[in-house]
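hi support,

uploading two proteins for the ticket. first:
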Amino acid sequence: MTEPQRWLLLVAYAGDRFHGWQSQPSGQTVQDHLERAIAAIAQHPVRVHCAGRTDAGVHALAQVVHFDTVVHRPASAWQRGVNAHLPPGIAVWHAQPVSRRFHARFGARARRYRYLLLVGAAPPAQWCGKVGWFHRPLDGEAMQRAAQYWVGTHDFSAFRAAQCQAKSPVRTVTAATVTAIPGGFAFDFEADGFLHHMVRNFVGTLVAIGKGYAPPEWAAELLTHRDRTRAAPTFMPDGLYFCGADYGAVPELPGGGRIIKVPHLAIDGEIAT
């Protein structure tokens, strides 16, 4: 019997077009569409595994995916061929064979998200679904100070959705930054893993601090209380992007193992990558 070959795909998608990443009976998730497209090329059912499962409305620029197949196809088939079977809003931008030891989910040492938030009197209609929005000025310095309390290993129960299925609320955050961009802010978070809604709950709390609802120290107090009801409401998913994962020093992988691609807002307001 032919030994299965494992393939790595890097996939981008517009999350506002689909029902999240994880397969559902509706068949309208990113995973559902991707598995059907790959199966059309492989001519057999395929199961894909990703680095980070995203909710409905959350985008990805560098979702890391792997699958196994016994058929022989060139890399172009798993990129251009698969893309020909995908709906608008999902695209494979890289494909390569990898060792069977590689695992998109369990091999990732860290994952990174960026949230783009525009601030202004009116919602950004032309980027509806692609950026978050808040109507009042925000104190960027206060938000940056607050985010630093989350760096390190902590119990993040205060930022965990009620339906979160993770066995432990403990995660290690290696980076949490708030950066001013034209018209708003970029929130960047990197950790060994994220709880359900954890980043959107981070952003909701930082926006509350930025508008003056509470001082930066509130971010630390929430960690201590471990009570989700004490933190701010979950922020909208629109501006959240999964930006990739870090697999350590693996020269044969894109980026040498650190597969990160982040969006930014150019001076004219266009979203670029």
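and the second one:
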Amino acid sequence: MPINVSKELPASDALKQEKIFVMDEDRAQTQDIRPLNILILNLMPEKERTELQLLRLLGNTPLQVNISFLRTATHRPTHVSPHHLDNFYTTFEEVKNRRFDGLIITGAPVEQIAFEDVTYWDELTTIMDWAAANVTSTLHICWGAQAGLYYHYGVRKYELPGKCFGIYEHQIADPTVKLVRGFDDIFHAPHSRFTSVSREAIEANPDLTLLSVSEQGAPFIIMSNDAKNIMITGHLEYDATTLAEEYERDHERGVDTPIPENYFPNDDINERPPHRWRSHSHLLFSNWLNYYVYQETPFEWD
């Protein structure tokens, strides 16, 4: 949240030069405050797990947030009860005449399928087109980030030689950008994906800014220059044990998935992995909510 100080306070200019969020008294007195309306398009198979992960992060700010969950109408999920979907989810047809302050598009287990071959691709692109005029800022996660980069900016994904699976170090390109304000120069984040996007393609696109890369140089945090779209290629929302559960699930299915890198202490799957990315998860979501949603969204959309 911003610091509210007098414009005449000597420290005010220094704080602004250091990129500390300062709001002068005149602006503060004219602000109207209302709850933020956030729509979550949950494409993950285990919907209740993803709901909890995201709500933990969205609920850890002083802002009041109203949450609506969206599901695809063209694909009926099978890993969640119909009762849960009917009671807590809506379809695009039911919200298309509303406006939202923020939208989150999650990952999905379809990354090895061509975008146009995904059963709900046309529905997703309709939602992304609608969001351009009816949502202040959209946060795309993992496959959702790849879909946003491809559809909006023509950045294609490519298949990796092996699954990117584990906890990796990342670097910040510019710590003064509001989205990564408060981040350490080097921080950790989980990844679980078979595909990636080209760093060269992102850096060559005049509409995109690359804010963070992994230790291997792969793009991690990408933002459109108008801040309408923010893409996170990994899973900062994951719990400490999520990768362990994915690893166990793959092996139960007979899938030869390697042990997640840099995850289990001593690579011992019987050891509980430490949660080394929690603080940056909270920072990312609170920065997005505050700077790119709350501070930018109109009090009355009309």
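thanks. also noticed: The CA atoms of residues 101 and 302 lie 13 Å apart.
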